[in-house]
Amino acid sequence: MQSTQHSTPRRAIDWPLIIFFVSSYAIAWGIALYLASIAKQAGLQHWTELAAMAEVMEFDATPLPLPAWSLYGLTRVQDFSFSICGLILIAHLHGKAGLKTLGQRLLQWRMPWMWWMLALLPMFLYLLATAVAGASSSFTFSAQNIYTGLFSLEAGLVVTFFLRGPMGEELGLRGFALPRLQQRMSAFKASVVIGALWALWHLPVLIDRDIVSVIIFLLLAFTLSFLFTLLFNGSAGSLLPGLVFHAFQNNEETFEILFPALAGTNWELTSSVLILVAGILAGIYLWMKHRGTAIESPFPTKTLR
Taking Cα atoms as reference points, which of 204, 221, 220 lies closest to residue 48? Predict the structure, then answer.
């Protein structure tokens, strides 16, 4: 008697995803190493000091082997490594149709109001943290403060949105990687993969921090991934809520401009703890609701490779 064994088919390795993450790491970490060598020549202790100078185009008397604008450009390429790699792979795998779909998702603003409320969660939590710190009465309204809070290279919300993490990371992480991962696994598992790789991608930026701060940062980045997935799926694949959430989450400096009493304090601790709890709750929700459920890719299937 001949026995027949049935084996579960193994899924092929998703090379585009591997290429996406490896390339993004290579660009960001490679630039960090290069900036570290320049910082050493300039007598700076950490490359992050040079990067901070480049982001605001203020180098004082620091000797530079490159023009200031080129250093600024390098820091932008570093911040945009995820989105650069994501756009290249979308264009390669899906052509013009894929780029058109991505553009539509960038402009997709019609959705239930609850998702816009969740997108503004960091702003609400920063306001709560300001009140807890007793700094609400220090609110200072002036045209200069508003302009600085919106457009300055150091703390501007608009600059943060378009030239830093939000546009620099979301087009790749949620525009390319998340839809592709969700074709192969549940929303929870996809969030775990992206959260872990996204958190570790930040390691060069954390080189001058103490171990406790590093652990807290990594844990916060990891749990934020669940919130971003919840926003993406809840808004039917729109990238706008995630971009808005990301911009406000990275823009605590604006609150220190509008509420001067916050400067020099640990006022963000309240909002950080609450956003961590929110991320954990989002993870539990995704685990319970989407266990083992794959989600169809928003990209044209006929060009999928």
Answer: 204
